[in-house]
Amino acid sequence: MEFTKMHGLGNDFVVVYGEQALPGNASELAIELCNRFFGIGADGLVYILPSDNADFKMRIINSDGSEAEQCGNAIRCVAKYVYDNRLTDKTELTIETLGAGVQPVKLTTEGGKAALVTVDMGAPILNGLDVPTTIDANPVIGHTVSVDGRDFAFTAVSMGNPHCVIYVDDAANFDLATWGPKLEKHPLFPRKINVEFATVNSRGQVDMRVWERGAGPTLACGTGACATLVASVLNGKTDRKATISLAGGDLFIEWDETSNRIYMTGPAAAVYSGTV
Ligand SMILES: N[C@@H](CCC[C@H](N)C(=O)O)C(=O)O
């Protein structure tokens, strides 16, 4: 099986192209290949597949074998893969996702290769039951989730996949390993949840660290950065355009007031290709 190791700000993937459909053992393959000690090592396994209604289709399996509806960093990697490997010559293309529909993507290029990628991530879903949470409110802002005697106020946002954004004093040094897994699996979140811990430094910049559903702590999360911007606007903390600074680098997120759509801009990188 041929693969390319790619990443978006250190959120890394084993990317596979050339299959016609997701293989039946994709979940087992993801667990095996994403293992950092006995496999290639990655946060997820990504398939680039043919699509009936877009230029390409993406499927992403987390390192624990669960499938995610969408992945912001992976979709930028997919765009770079198809452009750099001459599978398309379009710098504006569409990519179908499992849970966030068909997403338009624009590339800037340098030396014939994709550099920055902007993805139209669509409109955020704010209805609590649709995120999903068990809370019947729209939007879910400042609700409390209690774990091990500690209360966290959170804002719930779906970008196709579910997120809960929590404001803390120092996101960069927050104890992700203790609180992340407990929040991810809390009964308030029926499909589990990606957890973002955020510190707002100005109306245009937010530090964020993430505990991802199905993958644990990752260096970056594109959908999580979008959810953080949306939560920060809803909570009156930032403008509609802000830099979200992650452990692996910065993403630039804009929530367009007229269209209600979120635009995410950031890099994607190919590290090496191999056969396993
Ligand atoms: N890293 C991703 C999100 C990947 C999926 C996530 N773990 C989930 O299960 O929803 C991103 O960049 O958006």
Automatic annotation (TrEMBL):
The entry marks the following residues as binding substrate, namely 11, 62, 72-73, 161, 194, 212-213, 222-223
Q: Which reaction does it catalyse?
A: (2S,6S)-2,6-diaminopimelate = meso-2,6-diaminopimelate
Query: Which EC numbers does the record give?
Result: 5.1.1.7
Quote the Pfam families the UniProt record gives.
Answer: DAP_epimerase (PF01678)
Q: Which UniProt keywords apply?
A: Amino-acid biosynthesis, Cytoplasm, Isomerase, Lysine biosynthesis
Q: Can you tell me which residues form the catalytic site? A: 71, 221
Could you tell me the superkingdom of the organism this chain comes from? Answer: Bacteria
* InterPro entries xrefs: DAP_epimerase_AS, DAP_epimerase_DapF
Function, as annotated: Catalyzes the stereoinversion of LL-2,6-diaminopimelate (L,L-DAP) to meso-diaminopimelate (meso-DAP), a precursor of L-lysine and an essential component of the bacterial peptidoglycan.
Q: Which family would the database say this protein is a member of?
A: Belongs to the diaminopimelate epimerase family.
Could you give the subunit structure recorded for this chain? Homodimer.
Question: What protein name is recorded for this chain?
Answer: Diaminopimelate epimerase
| Name of the gene encoding the protein in the UniProt record | dapF
